[in-house]
Amino acid sequence: MLTKEDNDLICRIGPGTPMGNVFRRYWHPVCLAEQLPHNDCDPLALKLLGQNFVAFRNTEGQLGLLDEGCMHRGTSLALGRVEHCGIRCIYHGWKYAVDGSLMDVPNHPDPGYMQRQRARAYPVREAGGIVWAYIGPTDKQLPFPNFPFLELPDEQRFVIRVNLHTNYLQNLEGGLDSSHSSNLHSDFFRPGWNTSTVNNAMDDSAPRLEVEDTEFGYHYAAFRRVTTEDGKDIENVRIMPFILPSSRIIPGRRRRSIGGGTQGVIDFFILETPMDDENTAAYMVLYGDKKIDREGALFQLGLSDERFWSTDDYTYKATAGNRWGQNRSVMDTSWTGFSGGIYIEDAAVIGSMGAIADRSGEHLVPGDKAIIRARRLLLEAAKAVAEGKEPRGLSTDFKGLSAFDGDLPANQDWHQLVPGHRHLVEHS
Ligand code: FES
Ligand SMILES: [Fe+2]
């Protein structure tokens, strides 16, 4: 459990808050590249960490990210005209370049005035189908992270954005929680849950967890025992990295594992990006060594159903008011009543906790070990920053970062499956 004070400390990310200051040390997604589809396209109002911005793509294709309010008297620049290599406020015509310099101030008689003023412009990059920004202190800007999916050809990567009315920590904890897969996602992971006697690793809903701190946050291994049809006892291992401040990789299942390489695997790199305390943009990057079947992926997630989500505005549509879209009439064949749509199952359970979950009455169990460690790392970072110290995990070199889900042969050390992970603590 978390006290109300610690819960506030860890969840609130607005300007000036300790956790807000931690998040401001990292690069974050601000929108999909497709939301700024061409030069001089419509500007985009967006929200990151409780602050309002405007993003635009100028006549030459360069991206700009400015505070949304015009520096003259605060009109939203998202109403502005994007023209001739700048964005012009429609109220009195002040015009800004992507670097924040003023190109025109038509209601001031002194032409030198605009040379002396400048709007704050934020570093912005386009990579992997995402527009990224850094809004933290200028003198502490980290190099751009080399996440493993960024260099892949477009067809091997599929980015989905979903805006949820929940605090980032709920989403993050859902993703770090291995034990829920054996229940919540029974339709997907244990398709014979109501008919078959065949064992599956996911039938073990009390996995044993080993959690270790790493340079980027931590990684954990969840071990599940399973007896195969021919009576063999095997152990399945799922290794998941948590990347500070709010990302993780969910591994796709390896058809072949140690020594044999892998084939046709899709991993999910998920960045839970706080728009404000109660709204989070989840950027799910599906990536792998083959062309991604985008329609199939959306279907599996439950997101091909427009009652739940569409690319019109990326907002998750189901709410408590319609029971999150649950269909109770199919619960004899569907464990949840969501017919196996993985993401809509996740969205329902985390949304049902309220926008910011109250963690003061929880009853945590050994299966929650990874969640407890994530909270600890985040609280340590918030406290360090509040004391004027550097938070741990300001890592930007992600070469070798990976995840794994597959069978673990007897006597195999699981660390060999993620050889690129650097440890801060020794493992025995
Ligand atoms: S408020 Fe934008 S130009 Fe006046
Ligand atoms: Fe889930």
List its salient traits.
alpha+beta; Naphthalene 1,2-dioxygenase Alpha Subunit, Chain A, domain 1; four-stranded antiparallel sheet; 18 strands; 25% strand; binds fe (ii) ion
Give the CA-CA distance, first to last residue: 29 Å
Number of domains: 2
> Architecture of the largest domain, CATH level 2?
Alpha-Beta Complex
Question: And the CATH topology of the largest domain?
Answer: Naphthalene 1,2-dioxygenase Alpha Subunit, Chain A, domain 1
Decide which structural class fits the backbone: alpha+beta
Largest sheet: 8 strands, antiparallel
* Average pLDDT rating: 92
Low-pLDDT regions: 256-262
Number of helices: 8
Hetero groups in this structure are: FE2/S2 (inorganic) cluster, fe (ii) ion
Q: Please estimate the helix content.
A: 10-25%
Radius of gyration: 23 Å
Shape by Cα distribution:
globular
CATH class of the largest domain: Alpha Beta
Our estimate of the beta-strand percent is: 25-35%
Element string (H = helix, E = strand):
HHEEEEEEEEHEEEHHEEEEEEHHHE
Tally the beta strands.
Answer: 18
Could you characterize what this model shows?
The chain is an alpha+beta fold and 428 residues long. It has two domains: 27-140, Rieske Iron-sulfur Protein; 154-417, Naphthalene 1,2-dioxygenase Alpha Subunit, Chain A, domain 1. 16% of the residues lie in helices and 25% in strands. It has helices at 4-11, 18-23, 113-116, 168-176, 186-189, 294-301, 342-351, 369-386; strands at 28-32, 44-48, 51-57, 63-67, 81-83, 86-88, 95-96, 102-104, 124-127, 130-133, 157-164, 208-214, 217-227, 233-243, 247-250, 266-276, 279-288, 404-408. The strands form four sheets. Strands 11, 12, 13, 14, 15, 16, 17 and 18 form an eight-stranded antiparallel beta sheet that branches. β3 and β4 form a beta hairpin. The radius of gyration is 23 Å and the shape is globular. The chain starts with a helix and ends in a 20-residue tail after the last strand. FE2/S2 (inorganic) cluster is lined by residues 70, 72-73, 75, 89, 91-94.
